[in-house]
Amino acid sequence: MNKILVTRSSMPDLDEYIEEIKDIWDTHWLTNMGSKHKKLETQLKEYLDVENISLMTNGHLSLELGLQAMNLKGEVITTPFTFASTTHAIVRNGLTPVFCDINPDDYTMNVNKIESLITDKTCAILPVHVYGNVCNIEEIERIAKKYDLKVIYDAAHTFGVRYKGKGIGSFGDASMFSFHATKVFNTIEGGCMCFHNLSYEKELYKLKNFGIKNETVVDGIGSNAKMNEFQAAMGLCNLRHVDEEIQKRKKITERYRKNFQGTEGIKLSPEQKDVESNYAYFPVVIDEKAFGVTRNEIYDELKKYGIYARKYFYPLTNTFDCFNGKYDVDKTPAALYISKRVLTLPLYADLLMDEVDRICEIILSMRKREL
Ligand code: T4K
């Protein structure tokens, strides 16, 4: 039985990649901001429609160093309905995460709850464009302005998304994209920070290279987060095909939507106004009362057929063992509700329509069935 996993990395033809990396054998330049790194930076700046960009070895370190570059202190308002990375980037910077609940419809930060969480220690808001759903940008901007807060978006899921015609990474003070193998666009591992303020450029360049300013001066306590030339080469190849990949994902998403249309107990992500989507994920929320079986039962049943859906994002980050009960999950009830019911179904460019139909048939056949 062929396994169907939640996603499958997009890869260029082997010949295309070999052609792209050939000159590395002439130059022997493997990493430390080489020519491919520079070329990809220029191309991504244009593709993502952002003013400034700093490439890194992964999305997580982009976020962690992005926060460090802003020299923030105190509390950061964020959501727990995300991957471990978002919360860990805050905590690893010595900052305190303050968890805001999410909207039950698009799973992004509930902007009506932000102001009540602001204290004199709040320094920033870190919302997540989760699954590629765009946050309420205008309202977040209004609140940030009113209270003089920085806004850093976790845009890990929104590569290529546009809002009102503009690149999603151009909003807020900064946005982090992930180019991990599981993302719409990958550089194997990889990521970037996009930002407006040019002073962050120098700071990030330094921080991703140990804080080294020049051969004799080290004036930052940095990390090692440089994207290497093989990663950048993968990016240069994948970027040539990403639009086509997104179109394929769109067709698959449409098929899922058609198959599930009007099914009581299965809630789909909204199609957002003014948003050009990248079709990054296909989450469904199962209302066990209306549908008759739970999310976990569907997850287990699919596995019997070799189909590996994922519970992104369960558990919530504010319940992680590493935080030893420090955060009160009852303060984020919508996030808790969704995390217990959401299932992310397989979605990648090469997924066959027959496979989509089979996944939907298995799920739909479980409706109100006694297991
Ligand atoms: N913020 C958010 C909101 C994020 O979702 C993420 C990452 C980040 C920040 C941090 O960005 P990075 O530092 O990762 O750039 C995966 C990814 O590792 C992670 O990047 C991603 N979010 C998260 C949502 O998913 P796992 O633990 O589920 O990965 P894994 O190994 O179970 O892989 C999932 C499926 O992907 C596999 O079943 C098959 C497929 N796959 C996986 C790999 C590793 C491939 O097809 N090729 C591969 O090479 O976290």
TrEMBL record:
EC number: 2.6.1.33
Alphabetical UniProt keywords: Aminotransferase, Pyridoxal phosphate, Transferase
One GO term of the biological process aspect: polysaccharide biosynthetic process
Gene3D superfamilies in the record: Type I PLP-dependent aspartate aminotransferase-like (Major domain)
Keyword Transferase among record annotations: yes
Positions of post-translational N6-(pyridoxal phosphate)lysine modification: 183
SUPFAM superfamilies per the UniProt record, alphabetical: PLP-dependent transferases
Residues at the catalytic site: 183
GO molecular function, one term: pyridoxal phosphate binding
Origin: domain of life: Bacteria
Family affiliation: Belongs to the DegT/DnrJ/EryC1 family.
Protein name in the entry: dTDP-4-amino-4,6-dideoxy-D-glucose transaminase
Gene name as annotated: vioA
